[in-house]
Amino acid sequence: MKTNKLFPQVEGFLHGGDYNPEQWLDRPDILKKDIEYMKEAGINTVTMGVFSWSVHEPVEGQISFDWLAEIMDELYENGIYTVLATPTGARPAWLDEKYPSAMRCDEMGVRNHHGVRHNHCMQSPEYREKVRIMDSALAERFAGHPGLLMWHISNELGGYCYCDTCRKKFQQWLADRYDHDIEKLNKAWWTTFWSHKFNSFDQIDPPYKNGENCVLGLNLDWKRFSTWSATDFMKFEIDTLRGAGATEPTTTNFMEMFYDYDYHYMKDFIDVISWDNYPELHNNWQTDADQLLERSFNHALFRSMKKDKPFMMMESAPGLVNWRPFNKYRRPGMHELISMQAVATGSDTVQYFQIRKSRGSSEQWHGAVIDHIGTNDTRVFKEVAKLGADLKTISEVAGALSDNKVAILFDWDNRWAIDDAWALAKDTKNFDKTCMSIYNEFMSLGVEPDIISSDMDWSDYKIICAPMLYVLHDGVGEKIADFVRNGGQFMSTYFTGYVNKDLLANLGGFPGDGLSQVFGLRSEEIDTLYPEDKNSISIIDKAGKPSYSAPVSDYQELLRDVTAEVLARYDGDYVAGKPAITRNSYGEGFAYYVACRTNQNDIEFLYREMLEHAGIAYTKLPVGVEKHTRFAEDAKYDFYLNGNTEDVTVKDVAGVELLTGENVSGTLVLKGYGVAVVKR
Ligand code: GLA
Ligand code: ZN
């Protein structure tokens, strides 16, 4: 397995985070202390310039980066590298005053007032011009600086703009998508319904809140367009930097389970994937271990976007955040655990928001490495410093990659379409949760899945699960058929293959696009259950007898024309006795269909069977323990993470534990919130 370090000039992992010295330019004493403390905490990188526009250019046309250059040089002399951001995530007042088109319009089409951040119009020509001038100047000044690691494009790109410029861009985008043929669009959006036919592209509005928002094809295309628009903005920034001489890699910081844009589209236009990880720890509805699994899922989603290199955890909170309904401090030990989880899943960085707390304004109470007290002996500082030391101890792992053989399909437009469909129940569609529950089931068996899109390359995988794959992109039916024919294990569920990429129902039975043959069945009805409704299925054993029963919740499909083997049947309701889980032998592989919603651990036999068919070894882990593996050229690194507060023992572990240097053979004892990195 080839290893691929992101930054050969840095030894081991990156440890650091957002740093805003521009807020402290009148306090050289504080800036000096910051560097001293950073070194003490093993911090070797900072991210600067994220929101620095009004310092870079206090008055239009008067750009100076001298403050930044001085600090960057000094940091570099002290062994601290810089991730440099373009400052486009927030705008100075003078800019909005003179160029109001930079301000976004809301879903009623009304222009925002100046303020806050992450709210520029991605298509405003005036804003683009100011960005071009700023980014060119930045690149001209800093490209090639020995301390510069990479370019951080804007910040947490998100949201939609309903201004007139964006409206026109949307119309052009639609014209391109539908070959400048309005009848193609009418057909795709089924506009004869409710008499909503368009005669020309310029009649089409964005889905204004008080306008057309019931044409589902329009709603979906609007989200696709907005993804394109944000990507176009991001590309504009990248091209500008490149045009001015920047050669360093680029990234933009993604967000967890982000809804607004299809990251699977955006990912191809940046060099490195990074994301901001803000767990809601120690909450009152789930265990820490369950919260950790949600993090893992996100790490897997981002890792899988570029499998040939590590990803970056660009932000995370030392201590706590300040923007959740409840803001709880990480309990002792959690900082190490949750930071090491990023590394375990394939990140080569542990980065924070932020190094030092802002003295004022809305984030003055957000966690930071250095608190207002200004000392290096706080609990948070000491935990950060310990992690810094531990990252050094395991620095040989940096660059190692994951190599997973199981994947879960997660398409953004499928997510959007399921939520927007006038079907099922309003509050229990839970596509994301369903994907996560399958991920968790594999994790409990010590097998980590990747999270991929239906359009990505599947050739690395032996098992693919595609729960609720409501939207089938062009060619995906055939891709699934090929995958199974060639020996793959493919699992799908209720609400799969109902519509094509335009959201038109597949005719001739679900799942459509040839998949009925692959699964050996057709689905005739999907029934929605109230939370109080009770039904269950009986799992059939090898001798053909019911062995145990498992509850059904939310959705149950009535299948017909079933030629597949039946692995479970419904116990009650009007579907009693009908097939509920099936297995179809197809070519060299098997296609499994789960026609109703169950707890994944109630159907664990199915996951075990797929793993056995695929020849993938698994061992049930103790509850609350995660295992992840990173592969280097000549070594494998197994990370064990204990999300429980109590100690646990893991069996069948052998190798050298890197953090303690001890040999492990047989059992590994993990302390509460403990971490072990076992080299094989
Ligand atoms: C986001 C932003 C940061 C900061 C943090 C606070 O991730 O990118 O600027 O506001 O949230 O948690
Ligand atoms: Zn706009």
Structural commentary:
- The protein has 680 residues and is α/β, with parallel strands linked by helices.
- 29% of the residues lie in helices and 21% in strands.
- Strands 10, 11, 12, 14, 16, 17, 18, 19, 20, 21 and 22 form an 11-stranded mixed sheet that branches. The protein has a 9-stranded parallel sheet with strand order 5-4-3-2-1-9-8-7-6, with helices on one face.
- The radius of gyration is 26 Å and the shape is globular.
- The mean pLDDT is 98.
- Zinc ion binds next to α6.
- Residues 18-393 form the Glycoside hydrolase family 42 N-terminal domain.
- Residues 624-680 form the Beta-galactosidase C-terminal domain.
- Residues 405-616 form the Beta-galactosidase trimerisation domain.
- Substrate binds at residues 117, 155, 323.
SSE layout and pairing:
Blueprint: E1 14-18, H1 28-40, E2 45-48, H2 53-56, H3 66-77, E3 81-85, H4 93-98, H5 125-142, E4 148-152, H6 164-177, H7 182-189, H8 216-243, E5 250-251, E6 253-255, H9 263-266, E7 274-276, H10 288-303, E8 311-315, H11 334-345, E9 347-352, H12 379-393, E10 406-409, H13 412-420, H14 431-444, E11 450-452, E12 463-466, E13 471-472, H15 476-485, E14 489-493, E15 499-500, H16 515-519, E16 522-528, E17 535-540, E18 546-560, E19 565-570, E20 579-586, E21 589-594, E22 596-597, H17 604-614, E23 625-631, E24 636-642, E25 648-657, E26 662-670, E27 675-679
Parallel strand pairs: 1-2, 1-9, 2-3, 3-4, 4-5, 6-7, 7-8, 8-9, 10-11, 10-12, 12-14, 13-15, 14-21
Antiparallel strand pairs: 16-18, 17-18, 17-19, 18-22, 19-20, 20-21, 23-24, 24-27, 25-26, 25-27
Helix pairs in contact: 5-8, 8-13, 10-11, 11-12
The protein binds alpha-D-galactopyranose and zinc ion.
